[in-house]
Write a structure and sequence with these properties.
The chain is an all-alpha fold. It has ten helices and no strands. The N and C termini lie far apart (73 Å).
Length: 205
């Protein structure tokens, strides 16, 4: 009887701990207190976004570190917590070193939590109604639907060109989150990162 009660108590404490952790990790300052990314945090909360993470946060203030780095499914969520727990033990033992790269790289699943579908259908009063194609502003997301109809001919959308459907490139392969060598009009796509990827197929670029 006592053993069963003790086990139930341990499970309850564990569940309460995970609930508290899930709430606390939504505080970006909690993340930065261990992961020393002060510059990235500054760009995240800046009024004028300096990177893609900052642009996401400007559009939706609830989007923070954990929105992308927390895992999109229970399996990855538990893996993130396991890595964090192990790092905490190393920190307490004085053996922790800030990693120089992500041990759990972002998958497309993390992006598709919000970006599904990537291109939305056009409204009846848009290109779908037979309106002439126009050159779209790459920074204006309201034009994405028109690009879907024209398969990229009305703008510069990689995703609207059907021949790209079979190309296997991860989202963050092109849409780098924390790099600063791009801007809003370019959708924070870094040419130095993307052009070599494009040239794998388009040799004459």
């Amino acid at each position: 009887m006592l053993g069963a009660a003790g086990g139930a108590g341990a499970l309850l404490l564990g569940a309460l701990f995970l609930v508290a952790l899930a709430a606390k990790e939504r505080d970006n300052r909690f993340c930065v207190s261990c992961h020393l990314h002060d510059e990235k945090f500054g760009r995240l909360i800046a009024l004028a976004p300096g990177d893609l993470a900052g642009q996401h946060h400007r559009k939706d203030a609830t989007v923070g570190c954990i929105a992308c780095h927390g895992g999109a499914d229970p399996g990855m969520r538990l893996t993130v917590w396991a890595v964090a727990g192990f790092d905490t033990l190393k920190f307490l033992a004085g053996a922790y070193r800030e990693p120089t790269h992500m041990r759990l790289p972002l998958r497309d699943a993390e992006c598709r939590q919000c970006h599904t579908p990537i291109l939305h259908k056009a409204r009846a009063d848009g290109a779908a109604s037979g309106a002439p194609a126009r050159t779209d502003d790459p920074s204006d997301e309201s034009t994405f639907a028109a690009e879907a109809v024209t398969e990229g001919r009305g703008g510069t959308s990689y995703h609207a060109i059907r021949e790209h459907d079979t190309v296997r490139v991860t989202c963050v392969g092109c849409h780098t989150t924390h790099t600063t060598d791009s801007d809003v009009p370019s959708r924070f796509i870094s040419r130095t990162r993307v052009v070599p990827i494009c040239r794998e197929c388009h040799k004459e670029m």
